[in-house]
Amino acid sequence: RTRGIPVLGAGVIYPVPEDEYLVEPFEIPKHWLRAYALDVGWNWTAALWGAYDRDVETWYLYHAYKVSQAQPSIHAAAVKAPGAWIPGVIDPAANGRGQEDGRRLIETYQGLGLSLVEADNAVEAGLYECWERLSTGRLKAFTSLDAWRKEIRLYRRDERGRVVKINDHLM
Questions:
Q1: Are strands 45-53 and 58-67 parallel, antiparallel or unpaired?
Q2: What is the pLDDT of residues 7-57, one digit of tens each?
Q3: What is the largest CA-CA distance in the chain?
Q4: 153 in Cβ contact with 145 (< 8 Å)
Q5: Which of 6, 141, 165, 166 has most Cβ atoms within 10 angstroms of its Cβ?
């Protein structure tokens, strides 16, 4: 800062004020669609749940899980806890591994009872979709998601415009 160097490299990925997307937790209506996204790895495995209000075309992020260095069976039990019926998506490359290794991990988690399909892992398209939703009020997050809030505040690009892949598991 003292030398005029930005603290967040080229800047935050989602330059949207928190008060525009944070909401107090509320009981989610049973008829809303639900889903979660799963990011698996040894250092961190994370999952983020969302509920979709079709009437206003808005996603509400309402629950998060983030634990390091545990077996898939531990993670699978935690992911099923909010509702084993809730479907999920997972990166087919599974935390930077090759496609084949990622598919085997998906099969492992499916074998543990998770309903998972491969996510579209087009990074830039996904970033712009999230930014669009945040800035138009069609993506909201519960204020209770402390780990997610920490991550989004530091989710940034470096000086070359590349996404900084540090502490971004819930992103």
A1: antiparallel
A2: 545 689 999 999 999 999 999 999 999 999 999 988 899 999 999 999 999
A3: 53
A4: no
A5: 141
